[in-house]
Amino acid sequence: MSNETATTEANSTWVGPSAPQRLNLLRAAKSVAIVGASTNPARAAYFVATYLQSSAPYKLYFINPRATELLGEPVYPSLDDLPEVPDVVVAFRRNEDLPSVAEDAVRVGAKVFWAQLGLWNEEAARIAEAGGLAAVMNRCIKIEHARFHGGLHLAGFDTGVISSKRQLRA
């Protein structure tokens, strides 16, 4: 793995879209492809898929060459196999795999390349942006959608209490 691939957000030169820009990307999207979708309920890719299916207006496409069905929907082996071009391609893959996912997203004509929380690869962002896509990295699409649409409480983040003091446990 090259130093460029291992670049982290803390020492990066790439700057992603602001919160209002991310909101606009999510509002404009009609379809989302999840590359690395998982049938394992313990995986983040599964949890994000269940949230988006139940709480977001997107047509979802799941990409995983080793699965055939997820949450009652077909799973496709690759972005090339989808029946339509997705607006957003969300990557749940290893950091070193992100450039190839970005290349695939560009090739199929997506509008947004989105690397999930914990993923940061500036080469992938450059590939996406050079191909005309917006790039988002190190952001969970589920958390961003919930944040912008008042749904963080669905995952237990919104306690309804605004305080800087530690809460006492009963």
Automatic annotation (TrEMBL):
Record-linked InterPro entries: CoA-bd (IPR003781), NAD(P)-bd_dom_sf (IPR036291)
Matching Pfam families: CoA_binding_2
Domain CoA-binding stretches: 25-119
Top-level division of the source organism's lineage: Bacteria
Cross-referenced PANTHER family: COA-BINDING DOMAIN-CONTAINING PROTEIN, CYTOPLASMIC PROTEIN-RELATED
Protein name as it appears in the record: CoA-binding protein
